[in-house]
Write a structure and sequence with these properties.
single chain, Rossmann fold, 4-stranded parallel β-sheet, binds iron/sulfur cluster
Length: about 425
Amino acid sequence: MRRDIPIQAIPPTEGCGDVQVRQERGQREVFCGLTGIIWLHRKMQDAFFLVVGSRTCAHLLQSAAGVMIFAEPRFGTAIIGERDLAGLVDVHDELDRIVGQLLARRPNIRTLFLVGSCPSEVIKLDLGRAAQRLHGLHAPQVRVLHYSGSGIETTFTQGEDACLQALVEQLPEREDPAPNLMVVGTLAEVVEDQLRGLIEGMGVSQVDFFPPRQSHELPAVGPNTRFVLAQPFLADTARTLQARGAEIIPALFPLGVEGTSRWLHAIAQAMGVAEARCAEVIAPAAARAERSLAAAREVLDGKSIFFFPDSQLEIPLARFAQRELGMRLTEVGTPYLHRQLMAPELALLPSQTEVCEGQDVDAQLDRCLAAAPDLVVCGLGLANPLEAKGLTTKWAIELVFTPIQGFEQAADLAGLLSRPWRRRLKLAA
Ligand code: SF4
């Protein structure tokens, strides 16, 4: 489902941005938004994600997360069955009972997300009303929120957008007149610590990362809040923050040396930090990261890459692969293209780059096979068939599950792209 969201004007950046955008509406091969629970539950350590769904949803989560038998995971599925559908039990009573048991057994939970899914029996449920009722029962100890991770409404990373949007509505109003910075998007803790160190090193002391590690410690937001996206798939979250008075900082996304440098420079400019101060703070880490890319660049320089749409990270990844690793872009697929949020990235893609928004998977497979790229970034379901046709693939999901943002992770990101090609070279030797 495409959503056109007005975001406050982002000024154009350098470059021509003369990309060719093809739109496709056909069969698509992407995960649903439930997948975001995997990284969201790791980040917010006092939150629980209760999917209201079917056995299929439970299987998806378990296989994506790995089955944690000995740890008590902070996600689960309340399976709505045929008995409920037939009206033999009241689903709301069942949900109240399950939530009551869960919260009694897990007193550390401070935020409970009811996550909607797409089976028809769940669509009939008013989860918003259920969340309100349960919040009334369990607040203030536990805040109960809801969002949809349904495969009908969301793809893959849109689950995080829906979750964070629900959380933004809970942020307290900021009274302090001093400007503050909010970095928006789930990042691995190691990445967050590094970026915080650089931002604070520039002299920006009032900085919050959102979502927070503890879901009950929500940062305040107000008209003096400037926010910058760390992930490209958060259009609804950005719009809701703007509705709360916050102002977006247009920037590249912090992937690769160039992306991270420009992201930090954009923050510095917005927060009144002198250009020279910013350059001085980031120079050592940027130089280290630049050197660390050499090995991957040696393997990938001049090779072609094709992106199937999956995580919405494709355009920043394409910019990184082309500008920092010397790769040629064959086609850059993305599930959705938010032109304003993506404007700084699009402006840096080579003229005439083929960007494809949406998917018609058969047509795209034909194009990919005809182009015979050196590397294909695609979903799990397409990787084996493409490998069987002799192509080299990288699972897009790995690029979401692995910390790849920031200077220290630039080499890891490059390594994720170069490893499949190295493996193929070894097999051919
Ligand atoms: S939400 Fe829908 S698409 Fe996702 S696992 Fe459940 S049934 Fe499948």
